Amino acid sequence: MEKRVFLIVLDSFGIGQAPDAAEFGDSGSNTLASVAHSGFFKTPTLSQLGLFNIDGVQCGTSIAAPMGAFGRLQEQSRGKDTTVGHWEISGLISSSPMPTYPNGFPAEILAEFSRQTGRDVICNAPGSGTEVIAQFGKQHVETGALIVYTSADSVFQIAAHESVVSLEQLYEYCQIARGILTGTHGVGRVIARPFTGEHPNYVRTPNRHDYSLIPPKDTMLDKLQQHGFETVSIGKIFDIFAGKGISKSIKTKGNTDGIQKMLSFQHEKFNGLCFVNLVDFDMLYGHRNDIDGYARAMLEFDTALAEFLKNMQPDDIVMITADHGCDPGFPGTDHTREYVPLLVYGDPIQPNVNLGTRQSFADIGATILDLFNIREEVDGKSFKELIMT
């Protein structure tokens, strides 16, 4: 008999500062509270699942009896980026932070990168992607030099105009960078950032591609595969795990496409996990301080979620969470160290169960394995016994 678990990550949907937020410069951050101030914010489906019943959530209106289990998770990994967030969700806590480069990358790294690509490098500083291409795009188009930049996260990003550097070539350059950036300089992700348009109106395209480190040990995905279950990724999950532990990958171009592919795949037969990432919350709205855009995206997801819940099969379980915060109302454009929500629903799940505050995102991975009766060790503690009918 088929057992299907859908794990949906609303990329960057934090719900309030974590206890250690001050260590990350994020005191006072609260993605949910900022977005809830928008006149476009409306999430009746998430409300029914218990979003506003979660401990510490002070915006919105709690309801008498949420449909499923609800709680919040605190990150234990020493980072607040996509890679360590997803790895921890999947049962792998990263005790050491990945390297970041607030002053740009060392000269020897860039020299080797230029030697292997045959192209000069410009920028080499932290910055917002849209601002970086506005500032350096014209020089890149005129000289062919690659725009290399970073952020507060552990990333090496390469921006190039699609008419100057083909996508195939840009992806090859990213693989070269990935080969260089190992060991001490093992950044979490190398990211291709193609753009098009004419100066000064450059726009990034949906052809972004991430090249992650391979997880250093087995995650929930590997354990599921080893026990004969399917592991299907929708969105950038495949990139985040460098393909490790994933049996089928469905690529997407933004939230709308990802939501539609999730709704479509819901009607497919499979036995295992469908792991979904919706990236636009973070990439288009959190990082760009676009509160109204974030709110509209939440409404789009919430509306689709109502359809998703209606079409669930009797044994299906859905979990909704996030990988970090990215408060669009907080100073700066970087990720924020926040609690993330956990909403669990399905016929096998008891309604109105308050899971309180869980000590690690990894509890999700441990629980999913437990739901498939897999007793393998990963980081985290299962809450299966608390939620099952």
Layout of helices and strands:
Elements lengths: L3 E7 L20 H6 L7 H6 L19 E5 L8 H8 L17 H11 L3 E6 L2 H15 L2 E5 L4 E7 L5 H14 L8 E8 L6 E2 L4 E4 L7 H7 L3 E5 L2 H4 L7 E3 L3 H12 L6 E7 L1 H7 L4 H20 L6 E5 L18 E6 L7 E6 L3 H10 L12 H4 L2
Parallel strand pairs: 1-11, 1-12, 2-14, 3-4, 5-6, 9-10, 9-11
Antiparallel strand pairs: 2-13, 4-5, 6-7, 6-8, 12-13
Written description of the protein model:
This protein has 13 helices and 14 strands. It starts with a strand and ends with a helix. The chain is 32% helix and 20% strand. Strand 6 and strand 7 (203-204) form a beta hairpin. The strands form two sheets. An eight-stranded mixed β-sheet has the order 10-9-11-1-12-13-2-14. Strands 3, 4, 5, 6, 7 and 8 form a six-stranded mixed β-sheet that branches. It has 389 residues and is α/β, with parallel strands linked by helices. The longest helix is centred in the C-terminal third of the chain and has 20 residues, at 291-310. The protein folds into two domains: 4-95 and 214-387, Alkaline Phosphatase, subunit A (3-Layer(aba) Sandwich); 107-212, Alpha-Beta Plaits, CATH 3.30.70.
